[in-house]
Amino acid sequence: MAGTRREPDAGVGKRGRPRSEQSHIAVLRATSELLHEVGLRAMTTEEIGARSGVSKATIYKWWPNKYAVAAEAFLSEMMAEWPDPDTGSATTDLLLALRGLTAFYSGANGRVFAELIGEAPFDLTVRTELHKNLVLAHRDVIKRVWARGVATGEFRPDIDPDDAIDLLIGPLLYRRLLGHPHLDGASADTLVEITMLGLSAAK
Questions:
Q1: Is the Cβ–Cβ distance between 41 and 115 less than 8 Å?
Q2: N or C, which end of the chain has less CB nearby within 10 Å?
Q3: What is the CA angle 174-200-193, rounded to 5?
Q4: Which is it for the CA torsion 156, 158, 161, 165, positive or negative?
Q5: 191 in a domain, yes or no?
């Protein structure tokens, strides 16, 4: 991924030979395990090296810091495209999509995501990779659902889709990051129901 590492077939010039893809995979696997076992802050590059069998010096040739390694390891676990429910009802699709997002936020991957989000303001690489490879994927699905809802008359056509998405996702992310109030499927349904009172087209 751009910004986090050199491509597998690219040479590293005076710094060494082209990287081994096997070693690259080993580093990402070790990093992913450590993220779930000890967390981003506690994890060290030395631990990544020891578990993967790749030296710390070599890791730093491929990534600028442990946060860049963590972002790539985390994103390598996620699906490239978030599934679009497309049930025939945009309102139902929106609810299902946000339930899926809630399950993601409230699970083990959500904890890692929250830790990476905490580093994003201080690390351009982490911020760019999360935005490009995860956040935009989530928003694109909801935009497709929103467009269908406008076309069928379920959602208001005078609302900017990005504003609607912010209203829908914002409360979920807030609860994930702060842990209060509790985030679960029932609370997500309630938040969507309240928000949709203003977003749905008048009947």
A1: yes
A2: C
A3: 45
A4: negative
A5: yes
